[in-house]
Amino acid sequence: MEQLINKTINKITEWNKRWPRAVVLWSGGKDSTALLHLIKFKAGIDLPVIQYREPKMRERYAYSDKLIKDWKLEVYDYPPNRVSIADGPDVETGELRFDFIKYYQWGKQAAVCLSLGTERPKDSEDYLCAVTDLLQRPTGTFNWPWGAVYIGTKYSDTDLIKGHVPLAVDIRYADDSPMSLYPLRDWTDKDIFQYLEEEGVKPDPTRYVKSWDTWGNNKDKSLNADFYPVCFNCVNRHEGKYVDCPKLKAKISNISHLAPYEDLVNEDLGFRPVVWNK
Predict the structure, then answer these.
(1) What is the crossing angle of helices 30-37 and 189-198, to 10°?
(2) Which residue has the higher pLDDT, 26 or 106?
(3) Is 213 strand, coil or helix?
(4) CB-based burial of residue 62 (10 Å sphere; 0-12 exposed, 13-18 middle, 19+ buried)?
(5) pLDDT band at 259 (very low <50, low <70, confident <90, very high)
(6) 58 DSSP assignment
(7) Which of 85, 108, 201, 257 is 20 to 30 A from residue 217's alpha carbon, by CA?
(8) What are the distances in angstroms from CA 35 to CA 65, 71, 213?
(9) pTM of the predicted model, to two decimals?
(10) Class of residue 261 by CB neighbours under 10 A (exposed 0-12, middle 13-18, buried 19+)
(11) Which CA distances in Å does 274 have to 88, 140, 258, 270?
(12) Interval 13-38 mean pLDDT
């Protein structure tokens, strides 16, 4: 573990010399939190942070708010350029699932794609409308001042629709974009949890729980900022011509033919076409 940490710190230190004007992409999850801790407290580099937040259900950011205060972070948030829908069979259950792909400004003209997970709303649970709360949300651009971005993605990461998404590079560049830096590419989930524990950083309990000596995902996602309960009824392209709308308490037309469905494919980041079950 010590060798892995030192190797990562050396990468960060060297990259900081090449790209001193950088920012850390931080979700509040275990990987980006470990990355942020390594940069700030191990490499001794104090960088600003970007944390994209959803406008509603802000109680899901309580863990992040505490770290922002305790670690005295400089945090930026801004809206996406556009939002689309990804669908496919859940790799764990085989059931149909929907996620959102949010495109955020990434440099002067380019955009970065980030996924927002969704869950089927439970009875009496607050939920978001796929149309009014996400597809029709305010969008925009802003002045991008950074030349590089540190990202906590790992080679071992998985996506609930795409499955294993093996990250192919440590450093990635695209036209009109900042350098994307992946210092944790060789880490595993076990490495991340061990590092956080040894450093006295408790992972977000709304996302992760420890059973005996093993960490895993918290099955209760009611306060998880990575997943939101969303109603997709009227934009579900797998349903019929008419669907029930719980918001209007009425049967309405299915407008999925107007919805921006997309299958994100990027070989560098390990995202391959969705494979549908027959």
Answers:
(1) 50
(2) 26
(3) coil
(4) middle
(5) very high
(6) G
(7) 85
(8) 17, 13, 23
(9) 0.94
(10) middle
(11) 7, 29, 21, 12
(12) 97
pLDDT at 278: 58
Displacement of CA 167 from its chain's centroid (Å): 15
Task: Tell me phi and psi for residue 170, to 5 degrees.
Answer: -85, -35
* CB within 8 Å of 156: residues ≥ 6 apart: 164, 166, 187, 188, 189
Q: How far is CA 133 from the centre of its chain?
A: 18
- Which helix H or strand E contains 214, and what residues bound it? strand 214-217
Mean pLDDT value of segment 128-153:
95
Report residue 203 as tokens: 């992972």
Q: Which helix (H) or strand (E) holds 14?
A: helix 2-18
Domains and CATH numbers, the chain: 2-258 (3.40.50)
Can you give the length of the chain in residues? 278
Q: Which two tokens stand for residue 265?
A: 């494919």
Q: Which of 105, 203, 218, 94 has its CA nearest to residue 152?
A: 203
Is the distance from CB of 85 to CB of 261 less than 8 angstroms?
A: yes
Determine the Cα–Cα distance for residues 202 and 53; give it in Å rounded to an integer: 21
Q: What's the number of CA atoms in the CB half-sphere (13 Å) around residue 213?
A: 1
* Residue among 176, 159, 195 nearest 6 (CA): 195
Lowest mean pLDDT among 22-26, 261-265, 269-273: 269-273
Rounded Cα distance, 98 and 120, in Å: 9
- Cβ atoms of 272 and 162 within 8 Å: the answer is yes
Question: 129: helix, coil or strand?
Answer: strand
264 residue type, one letter? L
Q: 3-state class of 144 per DSSP?
A: coil
| CB-CB contact of 48 with 36 (8 Å) | no
